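Why does residue order matter? Because the sequence determines the fold. Keep that principle in mind as you read this record.
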Amino acid sequence: MRIQIRAAFVVLAIVTALVLPGVASAQDPAVDTYGGTGGEVQNEVDQGGALPFTGSDTLLLGVGGLVLVGVGAGLAYASARMRNSDARA
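Structure:
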């Protein structure tokens, strides 16, 4: 039973990996999206002292990463406990 479930997940992962690039390729290229103009060279360099905000909150990303690591560790711990209890029974 476990082998069948694992095989189903593997097949699902392979199908997903093969389908998603095709979907992304079907989208319009960036040149069409931006009106067919390429990048423009900036003649002047801004000498401002502050870095621009890139849109990502580093603290939020760090906390999210720690939560994911904690969930993974908790799942590994729970899985090990279940394996040990199955071995004793």
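The longest helix spans residues 58-88.
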